[in-house]
Specification:
- The chain is mostly helical.
- It has one domain (2-130).
- Helix content is 65%, strand content 0%.
- The chain has helices at residues 2-20, 42-51, 56-79, 87-104, 114-130.
- Helix 3 (56-79) packs antiparallel against helix 4.
- The longest helix has 24 residues, at 56-79.
- The chain crosses the membrane at residues 84-103.
- This is DUF962 domain-containing protein.
- Keywords: Membrane, Transmembrane, Transmembrane helix.
Length: 135
């Protein structure tokens, strides 16, 4: 049963990407742009973001990094220690960039769309938790 569930999640992830992402170039980049050549909405950006995380190890590293970021932020709030907040970008980006540079072999979307990328990281985190995106 677990294998059937894993296969279903994998197929759902592939279908989500296939149905929402236009053609991939040979550099694993997707061209999603508005009429003036820019991505305008989070809804336009999220399929591109998912396409940049096709490798499961990259997604897992993002998930671990985001979990650590949530834990550090919660600890900083509970202990009222703002100095801990300095660790957030180091930990969050550290895990993510290892995933991109060593497993996905692409540039993080953060370099082009930092705000959308941050939001989409948490959206992908939630989608992994609820099974919409393959772990």
């Amino acid at each position: 049963m677990l294998q059937n569930t894993q296969e279903l999640i994998k197929n759902n992830t592939q279908e989500l990407i296939k149905n929402t992402v236009p053609t991939l170039t040979n550099k694993h980049e997707v061209q999603i742009v508005g009429s003036d050549g820019r991505i305008k909405t989070l809804k336009e950006f999220y399929p591109f973001y998912l396409s940049q995380h096709a490798d499961s190890t990259c997604r897992r590293l993002h998930f671990v990094g985001t979990t650590c970021v949530i834990g550090i932020a919660a600890t900083a709030a509970m202990k009222k220690n703002a100095k801990l907040l300095w660790a957030l970008p180091v930990v969050g980006y550290g895990f993510a960039w290892v995933g991109h540079f060593f497993f996905e072999h692409n540039k993080p979307a953060t370099f082009k769309q930092p705000f959308f990328s941050l939001i989409c990281d948490f959206k992908m985190y939630k989608d992994i938790l609820v099974g919409k995106v393959d772990w």
